[in-house]
């Protein structure tokens, strides 16, 4: 079953995937409003509302009807500065955003996690992603879609060295570990948002690539 959401809440619109997703959303004729809070101003658009500032301040102030929420938030330990700062973004901020989206009436959350996410993982990054997924499941979403992409390929404003090195090589890896273009991931997220079903669905990177082409 497919639906046509018209009111969207988007976190992470200034990131690699978020930029592609925002562009797609603003060019969808059925969408009336995209509410995309960010730390820095986004390019203006008639259908875009862009609260700017500290998420801790503006999250409680977000208002209006929401059909679907997308969460493209994510950082690295190097950029964040510490494991604690990384967890504050990739777990705490994601969970807080999702909670507010649910309060605003969103029935479907589409969130970017990562390949290998596992709350019991010995790898800190994967463990945090797994704990984030666990926390979102506990919120009781009518529909929760968890996307687990492999290495993202695309041009960032602030390049990540690991992605620059591993990205091109990852195209040679078969299966779900093969890298995925950020524009393809964004297209897959939108297509997933149009599917209506109850409960939680986890989409691995190989399926995301197929959906995004």
TrEMBL record:
One of the entry's Gene Ontology molecular-function terms is: oxidoreductase activity, acting on the aldehyde or oxo group of donors, NAD or NADP as acceptor
Signal peptide residues are none
**Domain Semialdehyde dehydrogenase NAD-binding per the UniProt entry, residue ranges:** 7-105
Classification via InterPro entries? NAD(P)-bd_dom, NAD(P)-bd_dom_sf, Semialdehyde_DH_NAD-bd
Name the CDD domains on file.
CC3_like_SDR_a (cd05250)
The cross-references to PANTHER family, in alphabetical order and at most eight, read: OXIDOREDUCTASE HTATIP2
Q: What is this protein called?
A: NAD(P)H-binding protein
- The scientific name of the source species is Pseudomonas helleri
């Amino acid at each position: 079953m497919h639906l046509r959401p018209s009111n969207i809440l988007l976190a992470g619109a200034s990131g690699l995937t978020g930029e592609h997703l925002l562009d797609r959303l603003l060019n969808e004729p059925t969408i009336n409003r995209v509410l995309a809070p960010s730390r820095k101003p986004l390019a203006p658009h008639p259908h875009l509302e862009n609260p700017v500032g500290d998420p801790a301040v503006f999250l409680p102030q977000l208002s209006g009807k929401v059909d679907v929420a997308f969460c493209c938030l994510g950082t690295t330990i190097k950029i964040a500065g510490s494991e604690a700062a990384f967890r504050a973004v990739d777990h705490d901020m994601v969970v807080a955003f999702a909670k507010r989206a649910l309060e605003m009436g969103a029935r479907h959350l589409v969130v970017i996690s990562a390949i290998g996410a596992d709350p019991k993982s010995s790898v800190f990054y994967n463990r945090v992603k797994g704990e984030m997924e666990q926390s979102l499941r506990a919120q009781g979403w009518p529909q929760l879609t968890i996307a687990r992409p492999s290495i993202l390929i695309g041009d960032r404003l602030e390049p990540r060295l690991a992605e620059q090195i591993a990205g091109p090589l990852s195209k040679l890896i078969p299966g779900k570990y093969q890298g995925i273009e950020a524009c393809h991931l964004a297209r897959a997220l939108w297509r997933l948002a149009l599917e209506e079903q109850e409960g939680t669905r986890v989409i691995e990177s190989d399926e995301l690539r197929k959906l995004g082409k």
